[in-house]
Amino acid sequence: IVEIVIPDEISLMKADNLQTDLPLSPLDAMCLSAALSLPNIVLVSRDKELLESASGIVPAATPEDFLKTVR
Fold this sequence. Notes:
The protein has 4 helices and 2 strands.
């Protein structure tokens, strides 16, 4: 199941905190913040820097690796 999340004010504040703590671009910080707000989430991206930063915070995978886990 794919869910599209529109960040709210709280998610944006969390993104700002993440960007302060981690080497994230503003967009990557918003993606990670949104992922943290959802239960049972896997962050799927081809952005190597985002996947590296998300490692240890939320489950993260490339699309190809994610598809291997759901088949």
